[in-house]
Amino acid sequence: MPADNIRVAAIDLGTNSFHMVVVEESPGKGIVEIDRVKDMICIGRGSISTKMLDERAMQQGVATLKKFLVLATQRGVEPRNIIAFATSAIREASNRDEFIGMVRQQTGLEVKVISGKEEAQFIYYGVRNAVRLGETPDLLFDIGGGSVEFIIAGCDEVHLLESRKIGVARMLERFITTDPVSPNELKLLGQFCAAELYTSAEKSRQLGVTRGIASSGTALNIARMIRSDRESDSVEGLNQSGFTREEFEKFYQSVIQLDSTARRKLSGLDEKRVDLIVPGIVLIDTIFRVFGLKEVVVSESALREGMVVHYISGLRGRVEGNGQLDIRRQSVVELGFRCNWHEPHSLQVARLSVMLFDQLLPLHGLKPHYRELLEYAALLHNIGEFISIAAHHKHSQYIIMNADLRGFAPAEVDIIGNVARYHRKNPPSPKHPLYAQLEPAHRRAVDVLSGILRIANGLERGHRENVRSISAVIGERQIVLEAVTRVESDIELWAAESLKAWLEEVLGRPILIEARVR
Fold first, then answer.
1. Residues 257 and 373 occupy one common structural domain
2. DSSP letters of 129-179?
């Protein structure tokens, strides 16, 4: 393994589950997940009220950590790069030192117990590395077993970091004794959660927060269940997908009155969350109401990933601050490096693509948002060559749509993948399922953007960055594109001419392409 590559294993000792993620970080490729594993041992069971970790749970926890360490070693992680943090249940237990001592003695692992505020800070690092934060602050919340962390943050500033003792295991143990949950217990649980959230909600209203970003297993499980109800296909990646308040309320009403036997039959519900899901949905319902949120999106990155980002930043001598982080561009570039892209060619095609987008704006009228997606599609259009030259456009689409690009909504990934797919060969067709399933407005965007990308790709046919700039003169009967080149451009003009027909059809005008050397 090259010396510049670092492999790290981050272990999160949570109230419900122990999790470990193994990643590799290297310049260019960034952070790539190698493996992940979890064990729902529920070390916090019963400890919420007794403040004592159960002896059997502690033994099971140590056994799980031994397995994690074997896996980390097999995955090439050096012992010094295995980090472990303990949260709510262990943090509050009177016998936590006994457990941490057991872990140290039997595994050699040093577990750090972190405060609620530190936990919130790591969660922030993790979420901002996976979900694009807005110009207006968002409410980030991570639903754990013992606590829930709340962060109010925008793309360049953190306004609030706090931890509240309203985790799902704690609320289940304290409030719920009936199955299905009784109206009285439901009311008491909702009132308690609302009271805990009051001061945070006041801050949220002052900052104009309307969107929530939820992380942790409980939130992801709820998102998966809601999504499985509205989609017939299998559900894989959930990052930056989500649900509106209306969708959640419909889901809430359909689940809250079910008993455990009926809940166990629900599509998408993790069997080990059959009971924990009840306080989970009550909590999210309360967050929607108290904070006045319109939607919640989910982040597949949280505490563990934040631990990794912070740890690697320290090793690399970087500062993990609150500044702007362009995770979308970063994740696109990382994917390009992973697929051994030809970076100069990709950058040139992207540069020409956005030039053409700007020059042709009076005709296509697409919003600036699509300009960004075009640029990313152009950067990734050739990554399918990693698999096959002949059908690389199709492979590019598949890789893009299955690469878990960070910071993008699922619909955006679909657009990027389709635009890359049609940079050569046949143009978009309703016969192609991945194109046909797009919304009409997105299909029209793909039509325009793929047409632009085809010409930009033609103008870089020689892979020599010959075209300096391109301008357009839009007439009533035709469009004249003039390329300024470094040397004679026969190969570029020939390729662009062969690829212009689709954009001509989309824009409804013939295109004349000229070039002059300067």
1. no
2. TTS---SS-EEEEEE-SS-EEEEEE-SS-EEEEEEES--HHHHHHHH--SS
Place of tokens 């953007």: 449
Indicate if the alpha-carbon torsion angle 183, 185, 188, 190 is positive or negative: negative
Helix (H, G, I), strand (E, B) or coil at 196: helix
Measure the CA–CA gap between 375 and 373, rounded to whole angstroms. Answer: 5
First vs last C-alpha separation in the chain: 46
Tens-digit pLDDT profile for residues 425-448: 999 999 999 999 999 999 999 999
Q: What gap in Å lies between CA 116 and CA 304, rounded to an integer?
A: 15
Distance CA 222, CA 220 (A): 5
Which of 268, 303, 338 is the last residue in one of the domains? 303
Indicate whether 162 and 293 sit together in one domain. yes
* Total number of residues shown for the chain: 518
Domain housing 249: 117-303
Per the CB < 8 A criterion, the answer to whether 145 and 170 are in contact is yes
Give the Cα separation of 51 and 4 in Å (integer): 44
Considering the entire predicted model, what is its pTM? 0.83
Q: Domain check: are 412 and 513 in the same one?
A: yes
Encoding tokens for residue 409?
């909504």
Residue given tokens 């299955």 in the structure block = 402
Write down the pLDDT at residue 235.
Answer: 43
Of 17, 277, 46, nearest to 170 by C-alpha is 46
| Domain termination residue (choose one: 238, 268, 303) | 303
**φ, ψ for residue 384, nearest 5 deg:** -65, -15
Q: Grade residue 1 by pLDDT with cuts at 50, 70 and 90.
A: very low
Do 172 and 38 fall into the same domain? no
> DSSP code of 181?
P
| Tokens linked to 293 | 């949120």
